[in-house]
Amino acid sequence: VTEETNPVTIRELLQQGCARLADNSDSARLDAEILLEHVLKTARVTFYTQGADPVVANAGKHFLQLVEQRRCGQPVAQLIGRREFWSMPLEVTTDTLIPRPETELLVERGLVRIRPQSTASVLELGTGSGAIALAIARERSAAAITATDVSEVALKVARGNAHRLNIDGICWQQGPWFEPVRESCFDIILSNPPYVATTLNGCS
Question: PROSITE patterns, from UniProt (predicted)?
């Protein structure tokens, strides 16, 4: 990749990425494709239609750096700075948890309890990137939605996601759990917090 006189092709670079991830990821091919798509800023289909095209040295180097970080266990979503959730591209950072697939089930169950055009008051605790609140707001625009997070940095990411998705009306509150809204009442409360060891906080 560093030899500009003998550039590596898209196909060859992708093969290198797959080989380096083979022993560290159950989805080595997919991981490599997503990372290369991010670096080249092109659709994955071009890897096959234009696989013989050369890759500039800087792009190839960047890709292999991301591959190495993935080999060390860093999630793909954090490496590329986004995660698809409820058909919405969300920015994610090291300050926010990556929305898990099962979180969409939580959204589905919440929507069952919020009828279309309902003005129900909804609270999401520990919003992070804003995934749950944004999904509910997209599907139930009349609902009054509040989302809290202890991290102001995470809330900045959530607000940014809302702005990019043109979703407004969510009340973002900074503070631990119920603290920012302890004087308020809600019809529905949703949360998908981080995994907690069962030995903590008296759990068994």
Answer: N6_MTASE
